[in-house]
């Protein structure tokens, strides 16, 4: 709640000065703990979303990426090189037909 305001206006500036705002009173230790918890949760979320990388060693052909719900797929060259591709919005890669299809199940992925 704002208890008082002063509007100042001049040729170049216009601002509102708030002299007192009611905020919940938190001790410095509580603020530090809250920030620490938020930082830990953010780090845990980032680590939980880390996905393994796909390795084309000793593989050849098309492979769906089940970790990315078959929206991403790879073509592995016989020499181990990898080409990464993604399906258009609303489709998933079907490893049997080697095409992106609507409603294709993600069962046959590598």
UniProtKB/TrEMBL annotation:
GO terms for cellular component: extracellular region. It comes from the Eukaryota. One of its GO terms (molecular function) is chitin binding. Gene3D superfamilies: Chitin binding domain. Pfam families: CBM_14 (PF01607). This is Chitin-binding type-2 domain-containing protein. Signal peptide: none annotated. Residues 53-108 form the Chitin-binding type-2 domain. It comes from Folsomia candida.
């Amino acid at each position: 709640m704002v208890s008082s305001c002063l509007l100042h206006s001049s040729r170049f500036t216009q601002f509102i000065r708030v002299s007192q705002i009611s905020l919940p009173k938190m001790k410095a230790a509580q603020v530090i703990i809250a920030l620490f918890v938020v930082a830990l949760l953010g780090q845990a979320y980032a680590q939980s979303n880390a996905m393994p990388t796909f390795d084309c060693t000793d593989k050849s052909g098309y492979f769906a990426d089940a970790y990315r719900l078959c929206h991403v797929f790879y073509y592995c060259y016989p020499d181990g090189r990898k080409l990464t591709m993604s399906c258009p919005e609303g489709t998933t890669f079907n490893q049997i037909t080697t095409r992106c299809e609507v409603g294709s199940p993600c069962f046959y992925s590598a």
